[in-house]
Structure formats: C-alpha cells, structure tokens
Amino acid sequence: AGILGATLSSALSTMVGAPRILAALAENRTIPLARVLASKTPNNDPRNAILVSSAIALVVIMVGNLDSLATMLTMFFLATYGAINLIVFIEKTLGIASFRPQFDLALVIPIVGFCGCLGAMLLINKLFTILAILVIVLIYSRLASKNLVSPWGDVRGGVFTAITEWAAQKAMSMPYHPRLWKPSIIVPVENPLNYRNVMHLTRDIIYPSGRLYCLSVYTENNGLSQLESKRELLAPLIAEELFVQDISITDGSFDSALPVVLQTLKSSFLPPNAVLLTISNNREKQKRLLSLIEKINSFQIGLMCLHIHPKTGFGQEKKINLWLRDRSPNINLAVLTAFQLMQNWDQANLNLLRVVKNREDIEKAVLNLEFFKEKARLPVNTAVRVIQGDFYEVIQQETADITIFGMPVPCNTMFDLIGKVPSTVIFLADSGLENAIV
User: Fold this and answer.
1) Do the beta carbons of residue 278 and residue 307 sit within 8 Å?
2) Cα 400 from chain centroid?
3) Are 209 and 354 members of one domain?
C-alpha cells in the first residue's frame, strides 16, 4: 500500500506539474511550437501542454520498459542536482555580492555534491550518463543560440568577468614583446556619414583579431542623431565579431579630447597602439591635423594619416605599393599594415619600391629589399622594384589601389605628396612597439 501510494502521489504531481512546466518554457519561447503550447483555457489550464506531455509519456511507456525509463529519469534527476551544486560552487567562487544565501555552505559541500551526483550516474549506467549529458548540452546550446535575456541575471557574465580579470592580471605582469603586436587602432570620427570608406579600410587592417576604438565628440544639439549614425557605421564590424569599443564624449573638441582619451586608454588592459587620422584638402583642417600630430607624438603610439582619393577610392583592392626609404625609422608599421591589407584583400599583390638617384645604386638597393623581404617573411609573390630618378616624378607614374609611405619629416610634406600620387595614400609612423621581422 505504501509503494502504491507513493507511486500514485508521484504520478499525480507529475501529471499536474509537467504540463505547467512545459507551458512556462513555451511562454519564454525556449522550445519549438511555443505559441501553441503556451496557450491556455479560460480557466488558466494549459490544455495543449497537457495533451502533448500526456502523449510523450504514453509513447515512452509503450516503446520502452519501466526499468529503463526509471533509470533514465534517475539520470536526469541526478544531473539536475549535480547542476545545482555546480552553479552554487561557481557563484561562491566568483565572490559576487548579490549571491548571499541565508543558509550559507562551505565551498567543499557543492563540490562533494557535484562529484557524488556524477559518480552515481556513472555507476548506474554509463550509456545513460552520456545520453543525459548530451541532452543537457543540446538544451543549453539551443537556449544560448536564442540570445534570451534573463530578468534575474546570468551567471555566465560573472564567469567571463572573472576569467578576464585573471587573464588581465597575468598579462599585465608579463613584459611586452613586439611579437605580441596586433593592430589596435583608435579612429576619431567627426561625421559618421563621411567615414564609411575609412571604416572599410580600418576593418581590412584589423581583421580578424585586431581592435577598434571609435572616438566621437558630440554636442547637445546633434548627440542623438550622431549616435544613431555611429551605431549604423559600426554595425558591420560588430556583426563580424570584431573587438569594437565606442567612445563618446560630450562637449569639447578632438584637439582636446583625443590626448585625454589616449592617456586614459594607454593605461588600460587593452590599449590602442595606433591612431588613424584623415587628411583633408582644406588648409585650415591641415593646420589642425599638424597641431594634433604634435600632441600625439608625446605618446608612444603609432600614427596613421589617410587620404582617400576622391575618384578612385580603394580601386579594385588588388595592388598595394609600399615605398621603403633606406634606413627609414618608419618601416615596421608600414610593412605590418601592408601585410594585413594583403591578407584581407582578395588576391592582392604587394610591391616593395624604392627610388635611387644613381644607376649604380640599383643592384645594392634590390639586394637590400630582397633581404628585408625574406627577413620580414613577406609572401613569395611580393615584387621588388628599384627605380632611378627623382622621387616626386617617379611616384606620379606609379599607380596602385593604395600607396603606403613612412611618415615624412617634416609632416607637412604629406600635403605635397597627396597631390602627386594618383591613388589613395596612407602615411605611417612607428611607435616603437612593433617589429616586422620578429
């Protein structure tokens, strides 16, 4: 009689509880056919969920035997208790202030509980243990893919934060080496509508594992419209799962904001290592650019100055001309940037070029560039060309989809060069943190 009563009690509680649990899952849209299963009668009874759960129970009983069914159900009960113990262990380990149960436990208790549940599952049936774990993984994957927002919070955020804090402490305690370099660029954006081509090139420089910091300065009048335009500008990069951080400042100007932001970010865990500025044909903006470059030079950070050709843009994204002066101090960032573009432009070709005044210097210059090409491990199809003549005359005859120069001294020489080169031009200055041959 006792066994019969216990069995009937369990059956009744399951009959009442299972359909409502199924309906609750459907209300949160965590299972297929959610709209059908979540519907209820005027008496608030989940009729469709009752029918479906009853059908599932009958099919399982008819197909299998009760002993196997009992074993499988035991597995899922033990898996549930094991998961609860594991979650308690994780929450206590993270040290989150919001997790403060009135009945506190020693850390060893959830560990013993989790290991005990797993051990019991393996002792009962190894095959069903594997099956139960696979079902749990499938359910978790299904829920994670739906990007559900939990009103009571998500412990995964705390786990990732704890891992990040631990990794940050370890990384910051180790010395930096140029071998660890990857593109991490901060781009000041004045008007998001005019920066689509700039973001396109930035994406091609940082993809697949670089970082982008997008800085904007707003006023109260244009703040909302600019923010919306900026979200649209960054959306394609975020969709590709690139590291993108939006930095917005109200009031002020780029001339005053950029140095402050650089000082702040340089002391962070993942600092930028280059600044990308655009070159305008407007004389007043060119003066502002030179003033901004003077301020940036006090930081140990790379400098990129981009001028997009008004007619050709980036052309067919097939040909990259990299001009390397003999003993130039700004070679490394230029080479690494050219390599990134070559990797991300489909079937792009890289040309290493140099101009010499005397014919007898050509052979030596070719050997020098070939040696550098080998040391920098550039692709074998990288072409080396040394041309005799006047530099300003030669660059006018060499066409490409993008032309890369080391930063000239003085910097205002850039403005003369962009009028002579028949393509988009980018000037680069090393920070000292990069090395193309390591």
Assistant:
1) yes
2) 31
3) yes
Looking at the structure, do residues 134 and 195 belong to the same domain, yes or no? no
Q: Are residues 311 and 353 in the same domain?
A: yes
Q: Going along 264-348, which residue ranges are E strands? A: 274-278, 302-307, 319-323
Contact predicate 243/208, CB 8 Å = no
CA dist 132 and 127 (Å) reads 9
3-state DSSP assignment of residue 239: helix
Q: CATH number for the domain including 265?
A: 3.40.50.12370
User: Angle at which helices 155-172 and 66-94 pack, to 10 degrees?
Assistant: 50
pLDDT above 90: residue 401: yes
Using one digit for the tens of pLDDT, what is the confidence trace for 115-151? 999 999 999 888 888 888 888 888 888 777 777 666 6
- Of residues 329, 332, 323, 266, the one with CA closest to residue 299: 266
Q: Which of 59, 123, 113 is nearest to 81 (CA)?
A: 113
DSSP 8-state class, residue 221: T
- Alpha-helical (H) ranges within 146-222 are 155-172, 196-206
pLDDT in tens, 313-347: 999 999 999 999 988 899 999 999 999 999 999 98
Structure tokens, 238: 């975020």
Whole-number Å distance between alpha carbons of 434 and 438: 9
Give the per-residue SS3 of 113-164: HHHHHHHHHHHHCHHHHHHHHHHHHHHHHHHHHCCCCCCCCCHHHHHHHHHH
| Residues with Cβ within 8 Å of residue 342, at least 6 apart in sequence | 320, 348, 349, 350, 379
Model confidence over 371-396: pLDDT tens digits?
999 999 999 999 999 999 999 999 99
Residue 28 CA to residue 74 CA, distance in Å, equals 27
The reply to whether 416 and 337 lie within a common domain is yes
The count of structural domains within the chain is 2
